[in-house]
Amino acid sequence: MKFAQSFFWRQTARLLVLAMLVLCGAPLSAYAGTTIPAGTPITVKLNQVLTSGTLSVGSSISGETTAPVMVKGVEVIPAGSAVIGRITNSVKANLAGIPGEIHISFQSVTAPDGTVIPLERGLAMAKGEDRMILSIGIGVFCCILGFLIKGDEATMSSATTVQCYTTHEVTLD
């Protein structure tokens, strides 16, 4: 019985302290009010495999932060935070040995408070194997069918990492 009363009073005291903090407008998180400076580096890992033969320009892609982002000793963006990007260029492999190509750009990361933080310079590209010389060589010296050889599609693995930077100063709620 004594334990139950003691537990009750401890829980009540905790709730009262929490209510006072909320009513006084005190931040409830360690990062609230922290400002992330412009140009803060954020490393992003792609979440899926991309292949030039199946992508369209403008398609959405996803990634996640690979390490926590710290500002003045406070973790403001945890590792694994959601990052959104787009396909900026996609070329399918073609005849005559022309390779496929993919260009991506990561555009924003979401902080734990829901703030969407714009990113810049989060660019990456991949190019498939170029078989143009082989195709032309066979086509000219052997058989016209050599021009039907395709280049390889470009592929980006889910382990692809890209260095991005915050575009401007952002203060978290």
Overview of this protein structure:
The chain has 173 residues and is an alpha+beta fold. Helix content is 18%, strand content 38%. It is built from two helices and twelve strands; from the N terminus they run H-E-E-E-E-E-E-E-E-E-H-E-E-E. The chain has helices at residues 2-23, 132-141, and strands at residues 35-36, 41-46, 50-51, 60-65, 69-71, 74-77, 82-91, 101-110, 116-127, 155-156, 161-166, 170-171. A six-stranded antiparallel beta barrel has the order 2-4-7-8-9-11. The two termini are 42 Å apart. 25% of the residues are buried. The model has no long low-confidence stretch (mean pLDDT 79).
Query: Distance between the terminal alpha carbons, to the nearest Å?
Result: 42 Å
Rg, rounded, reads: 26 Å
Element string (H = helix, E = strand): HEEEEEEEEEHEEE
Give the overall shape: elongated
| Alpha-beta classification | alpha+beta
Largest sheet: 6 strands, antiparallel, barrel
* Strand proportion: 35-45%
- Tally of individual helices: 2
User: Which regions contain 5 or more consecutive residues with pLDDT less than 50?
Assistant: none
Physical arrangement of strands within the biggest beta sheet: 2-4-7-8-9-11
| Multimerization state | single chain
Provide keyphrases for this structure.
six-stranded antiparallel barrel, alpha+beta, single chain, two-stranded antiparallel sheet, 38% strand, 173 residues, elongated
